[in-house]
């Protein structure tokens, strides 16, 4: 990149960037000797920005310049190289932390600006996304590394309940009168065993989707502002969480990827899949957690960030509201499925990037926070399920 290419070109720092110091162990042959092992600590600065999708290392000089360049206005390239080290500026352009007006980086960075992310929430969200992670492989590596008992390796866990006063000081409450809802809650057990030999009925499939995501009413509260009434709460009544589906075994529904339309109570086909392709995608979505792969349906609650941040712009609590949405929705899936004699699960250990690519989602606009699933529980328990009340399984 030559300086004359930047004549009259304008640049600015990207909208959101966070940096942190990181230490790593390196080996240096020259340090290997009688008094040294050759190993030493290397301190690096790492920069994260949502429009980059991946982190990048920066030098001290680049870090200093990041702190000096504004992101709110464009600056002429020639003016910058007159007062700053041109090589450092070029490096920041190549790393897409310094944005060239009209470039592809500018388009991605502008999307970040337009969606009104709160800066710290954006960094936390994009830094925690996975791609191609295999939980089973990690578990095997953990077991090999921690050959001793887990408690010897991890130490004792914190107590299950924090106690603030002595037992005698507690105000005892009257027992709750049992209702059918209690029986339903007792049967709510995360399922790790699904029946591959049976199809989920279309009526049951439809019922769980409608109860969880379906719109009971559409209300226009102001010109052009339409809000949905659903069976779960949502901050500001915005309901920014969409349902994307991976269907494997449902009566009358071909295996494939779908989007659920909550007003029309209908499926929108995205891509057809063979049974083998669907199973492989399911495995990738849940980071190879084999006990979830056979669920008849996977429902991916996906946040439409711009819908939520349209009202709660750059708001410190806006992202938290999205995570609450997923909690409400996932538990409604559990209860709806349990009432119908079905089984359900939720996991946050997911490969977000793989899901985004499969459904064609722009991660600056729309992204998954978890994967839920439901279906018919297998007659035989092969995988351990946490059912201490024996509401589902008898030992």
UniProtKB/TrEMBL annotation:
Pfam families: Nitroreductase
Domain of life assignment: Bacteria
Matching InterPro entries: Bacteriocin_Proc_Enz, Nitroreductase, Nitroreductase-like, SagB-rel_DH_2, SagB-type_dehydrogenase
Domain Nitroreductase: residue ranges: 186-375
NCBIfam families: antibiot_sagB, SagB_rel_DH_2
UniProt xrefs under PANTHER family: NITROREDUCTASE MJ1384-RELATED (PTHR43745:SF2)
Protein name: Peptide maturation dehydrogenase
Organism: Dokdonella ginsengisoli
């Amino acid at each position: 990149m030559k300086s004359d290419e930047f004549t009259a070109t304008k640049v600015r720092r990207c909208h959101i960037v966070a940096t942190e110091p990181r230490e790593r162990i390196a080996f240096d042959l020259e340090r290997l000797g009688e008094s040294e092992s050759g190993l030493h600590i290397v301190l690096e600065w790492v920069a994260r920005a949502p429009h980059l999708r991946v982190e990048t290392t920066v030098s001290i000089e680049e870090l200093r310049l990041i702190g000096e360049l504004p992101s709110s206005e464009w600056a002429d390239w020639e003016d910058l190289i007159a007062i700053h080290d041109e090589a450092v500026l070029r490096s920041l352009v190549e790393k897409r932390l310094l944005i060239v007006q009209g470039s592809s980086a500018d388009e991605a960075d502008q999307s970040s600006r337009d969606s009104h992310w709160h800066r710290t929430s954006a960094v936390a969200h994009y830094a925690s996304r996975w791609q191609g992670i295999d939980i089973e492989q990690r578990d095997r590596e953990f077991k090999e590394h921690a050959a001793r008992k887990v408690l010897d390796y991890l130490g004792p866990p914190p107590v299950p309940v924090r106690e603030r006063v002595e037992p005698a000081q507690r105000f005892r409450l009257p027992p709750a009168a049992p209702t059918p809802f209690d029986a339903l809650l007792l049967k709510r057990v995360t399922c790790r065993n699904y029946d591959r030999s049976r199809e989920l009925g279309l009526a049951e499939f439809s019922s769980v989707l409608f109860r969880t995501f379906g719109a009971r009413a559409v209300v226009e509260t102001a010109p052009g502002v339409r809000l949905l009434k659903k069976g779960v709460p949502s901050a500001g009544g915005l309901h920014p969480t969409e349902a994307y589906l991976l269907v494997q075994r449902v009566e009358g529904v071909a295996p494939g990827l779908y989007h659920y339309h909550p007003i029309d109570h209908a499926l929108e086909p995205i891509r057809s899949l063979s049974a083998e392709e669907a199973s492989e995608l399911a495995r990738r979505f849940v980071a190879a957690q084999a006990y979830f792969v056979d669920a008849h349906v996977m429902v991916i609650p996906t946040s439409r960030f711009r819908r939520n941040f349209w009202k709660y712009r750059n708001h410190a609590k806006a992202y938290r509201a999205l995570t609450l949405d997923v909690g409400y929705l996932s538990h409604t899936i559990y209860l709806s499925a349990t009432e119908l004699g079905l089984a359900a699960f939720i996991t946050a250990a997911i490969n977000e990037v793989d899901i985004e690519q499969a459904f064609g989602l722009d991660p600056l606009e729309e992204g998954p926070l978890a994967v839920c699933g439901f279906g018919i529980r297998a007659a035989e328990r092969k995988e351990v399920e946490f059912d201490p009340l024996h509401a589902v399984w008898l030992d």
